[in-house]
Amino acid sequence: SCWLPAAARCPGLPSSRYRSPESLLDCAAKAVAEKWAFERVEERFERIPEPVQRRIVYWSFPRNEKEICMYSSFQYGLPFRRGIRLLETGCVENVLQVGFHLSGTVTEPATSSEPEVTHKVAISFDRCKITSVTCGCGNRDIFYCAHVVALSLYRIRKPEQVKLRLPISETLFQMNRDQLQKLVQYLITAHHTEVLPTAQKLADEILSSNSEINQVHGAPDPTAGASIDDDNCWHLDEDQVREQVKQFLSQGGYYGSGKQLNSMFAKVREMLRMRDSNGARMLTLITEQFMADPRLSLWRQQGTGMTDKCRQLWDELGALWVCVVLNPHCKSEEKSGWLKQLKKWGDMDICPLEDGNYGSELPNITNALFYNLNNIDCTPRRTVFSRAVEACDLHWQDSHLQRIISSDYYMSPSYQREGESLLFSPQGLPLWLDHVPTACARVDALRSHGYSREALRLAVAIINTLRLQQQRQMDIYKHQKKELLQRGVTSTTNLEGWVGHPLDPIGCLFITLTETTSKNLFIQRKVLIYHHVPVWGSPDAGESYLTLALEVALMGMGQQRIMPEGLYAQDKVCRNEEQIVAKLQELELDDLLVQTLRKQAIQLLEAGPFSGLGEVIHRESVPMHTFAKYLFSALLPHDADLAYKVALRAMRLPVLESSAGSGDVGHPHHGISIVPSRYPRWFTLGHLESQQCELASTMLTAAKGDMLRLRTVLEAIQKNIHSSSLIFKLAQDAFKIATPAESPPDITLLNVALELGLQVMRMTLSTLNWRRREMVRWLVTCATEVGLRALVSILQSWYTLFTPTEATSIVAATVMSHNTILRLSLDYPQREELASCARTLALQCAMKDPQNCALSALTLCEKDHIAFETAYQIVIDAASTGMTYSQLFTIARYMEHRGYPLRSFKLASLAMTHLNLAYNQDTHPAINDVLWACALSHSLGKNELAAIIPLVVKSVHCATVLSDILRRCTMTAPGLAGIPGRRNSGKLMSTDKAPLRQLLDATISAYINTTHSRLTHISPRHYGEFIEFLSKARETFLLAQDGHIQFAQFIDNLKQIYKGKKKLMMLVRERFG
């Protein structure tokens, strides 16, 4: 028995184009033309009057332009619009209908680059469907060309101007033999080049008594319509569908191919809505090509995942099959055929899995742990077609279901409303107690197959069921509340969430309910405006489909659910959530919607473990940040207290808390989620944390100027956000909002920014963070904006916030800069207070880390004698143990620059004790420092030079460096620095006497040692360089009194030891004798 009214089963019939009532003949002919093949009419009646035949033939052509549009383009695309233009500009001519065959010519007007061209078009049709098309343009596409569109629309819009003839067989039946012979001969004459061979062949066969043609009674007639056995469906070029899908898939989602495939899916939905059998046929062709995609086996072999775009296409494919098999009027043999095909595809190894790519079959740590604990066979393999296979078991015969979708006023009698009922709510409204995604799949199927009113009725019943369940869950929670709050965690949650579900139940209900309001929908400033449409049959006068849509979206988004396994499933949860929020944001919130919003927000807060916004949630529950951000923004203008309550409750992210509570047993995989580390399963954690940050930022912005609210938000941030980078972002956001360019800063929000900044400093003090320097500089800027007390505070508590290096080189240096003093407009006592804090910090840092902070400490303490002396003493104390020669040389140069040459000398001497310069290190970076130290000693006087030379001799073994020092010391007299109280002779120093004698001996010794070292591994290409080295050595030898004798002995010694190096020794003899 069919539960749909006849009008619903016959869509697409336009209202009569005549003002007067149609004749009984036309009424009957229309019905017959749509439902019966003409062959059946001929079989049923021995002789059909010609007027009746004419009206049947007349009404057999399609009557609905929507159908022509559906087969000519994607969503009123180019071919359809071009066809209308050709029709309206008079390009269609010679239109003739012979039986069930329409022909005509369509002329393409000339353009600047193309001449005028005329195309012959032929269309066959049957039972108001076009069954084949041909056009001279040679179009090869899924859709009809513009010329076929133009001819079809001509026939629909101007039927009275079309010459109408009965099928040609009827005309031939009226002719005698002579007339028939004349017709054939004229036909051959008119088309002899094309027709003559065929005519001769047929004549031969007819004249042969044994031929096959004589075994069959009658003859074919292409104009007589379809036979009884023919499928009654629209013409669809299957080869072109296959070819185009294959081509789009080969492009891998590039060049807009993903968009084209989505358009093909939309076309399938359009066909289903028109109840066109080609919808399932086209989907089958598409699926065959998807399964033949060569990338599937490649992805499986490599264990890599397909792209997100590709994965979404597979999801849509699976969802469409669910719609197809849930067609309320499909025949059982059709469903059996689909089930067989779906199982065949699903059994293939390459078939993509429902929960992602091929991830759950790979030996990753998560699954390996799970499979060791549980038998691998206990989890059946679920593919993208599994839902459709399961949907094949669903039927529409349930009497309660049939009544729900057949009537707006189906309710239980008032006398039956006492006690519990599985069929009706306490108010008598019908319920549909089914697995929610499955129930919503039924709604989607009804809507997809053109039963929008029926889909609405079932959607309302589902929402009434959800409402009742929500109320009962709240009642259960009230009894468990005390115990759950004591434990602080719950094991009660939904393992299968509605948001991110493959069947998208919430999105389906929302679209179904809002579609009915879109009849009056218009676009204004690019904002969609919806109108309230009362719910048919609802006892609540204030209830509309729009309020129901909002309510069910809030219910679904607020459902507490476990984060699913796998990257793709988790990403899908996030994406689906954002899609639903985007739809909600299109709603203009009026009083009715705000009332719904407030009511549902309060219920979600009070619903306990069944709500993601309840007081207690599972540790691995999907966070509510994105949803709460929408609720906060929507509620804020109407109920600020509730808005903050929702947002603050949603700030938590339990999976990041350090330990799981004892009640953390609600998910079969919870054990493995904390084995390798704390949260390996949460692939989207970065995205979720950023959403948490967005929620916090939204609250901070809204709370500007409200100290109490800001303090509450700050506490929530400090408690729940665990990423230093995100807290830093929040601090920056708060600072930016608090310091607008054109108006004075908001001190309340500035203080929050500062507190967040301080927390970031504490969090990153002992961990590596590449943005640390930026964070430190920002904090000083923020503290400067807050004022003097903030700066004093960070200087005094530096050790909890900064490293000693940061505290001296960045913090104190910036605080003491001229710009900071000007920015704060400080008076003298305030400047002194700040300077004193900076000096104290500098000395503390120098004590803790003298290597890196001593110089900064000296610089900061310059203006205070006692502090400066203290800093200098810290350097001296640390010089012998913890400081390197380069650090000491740097401080020594600073001291010289500041006018402390004797202190500089002392530090340089200490630096020399840490240095060791080997014989071959003639490009060592410390050479300049050594030369500078010697020059400083020489300028101070003979005593200082005498003190440093033994250090140089001990530390420097490089002959060229030593000779350079020796040369400089002999060029000028020592003591030219002019130290007060000292007398200098002004005489040049002799190399024969101390202290230069020691330096000369060391230099000559270094040249001798270096020469032997170099000769050990010398190659011919270095001979020239070696001879020059000996020349420099001779210059040094000659500074000694007997230097020429020493050098001659040295050369003779070389000739004797290295006589095997004949060529080199020959060069030595040539230069040195």
From TrEMBL:
Gene Ontology CC annotations of this record: Cul2-RING ubiquitin ligase complex
Domain ZSWIM4-8 C-terminal, residue spans: 887-1064
**What InterPro entries does the record point to?**
ZSWIM4-8_C
> Which GO molecular function annotation, any one, does this entry have?
zinc ion binding
Q: Which domain of life is it from?
A: Eukaryota
Q: Which gene encodes it?
A: ZSWIM5
* Pfam families assigned to the protein according to its UniProt record, in alphabetical order: ZSWIM4-8_C (PF21055)
- Name used for this protein in its record: ZSWIM4-8 C-terminal domain-containing protein
Query: Which keywords label this protein?
Result: Metal-binding, Zinc, Zinc-finger
Indicate yes or no for the key word Lipid biosynthesis: no
